[in-house]
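Hi P.,

Sorry for the delay on this. The queue was packed all week, but I finally got your sequence through. Input first:
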Amino acid sequence: MIHTSALSGLGIAGQNITLSGKYGVDIFFVISGFTIAKTYLESASYKAYLTQRLFRILPLYWGVLIFAFAATTGSVDPNTPNGSAESTIGLYELTLNLFLVGYFDYPTVNSVLGVEWTIPIEVTWYIALPLLLPLLSRLKSLVPLILALAIFVVIAGYLSKAVYGTSAPIRFSPLAHGHWFFIGVFAYFARLRSNSKLFSSSLSLYAVSCTMVFILPISMSGKGEILAIGTAILIANVSNQKAPLICDFLSQKLFLFLGTISYSLYLLHPVAIGLLRQIGLQLDTKFLQFSVTLSVTIVLSVITYQLIEHPTNKLGRYVSKHLTSGKSLPA
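Then the structure:
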């Protein structure tokens, strides 16, 4: 929505809803923290866990990145978060992004796709977070750690802006988003213990859900924090017994389908935007542009899911299983 200015033609409310799309990344990191804790603690070993996670994320990422690099003519999308329309894309930028270290030279971040800055952050926490879980399992000790990390990021961003004139070196680093992953871990352990009394009632969970929806058309500070923390609350507490309407809603086939191909959707929507721009498609409204872009992205995502994601996910589970069993892989 945000990269196509989907509802920006529908007044201030539509603009605010569209701009709220950027907070989807915060929500994603919270969910990822929960997922990392769950998948690691359910795995037989760290090696087996990491193997499966890397097979899950890297093949599609590398494939889309190389395709986008080959398809570009030396310029990037001016609507990307990095906003460097005049930048050229070379092997240096591609190499840093392929090896997931673009945040060490922040101008290279988002220089190929426009959304790839999140992947190195994700993989960094894939590697580091399981090692920290013994320290994070105590909920009372986790809260001050989350607050301390969030405060550190604010201070570091301020200092970066004072020294470099931009907060980008901090904003694109894994540390800047660590508190969201930790909040996801908090949600995992809270759900595991099922002892949360603050949001134990159905009414409180529906209130959280409604709040997250109602603030979307409003211009306000702290919206990202409300959406991310609301997500953690729902993850920690929602069940068929407590909130059947939420579970039924999110269990619809459409959402399950979009969830299945969501990683492809994320990586491929800039490709779809670029393809539509190259063929010179002119649409009457931003919403129509969003609808067409989404439709094209879904088609491309189904293809990449079948050709890349599903086979490599299956291969990752296979390799992970053999690593756990100690057997050698067949030639």
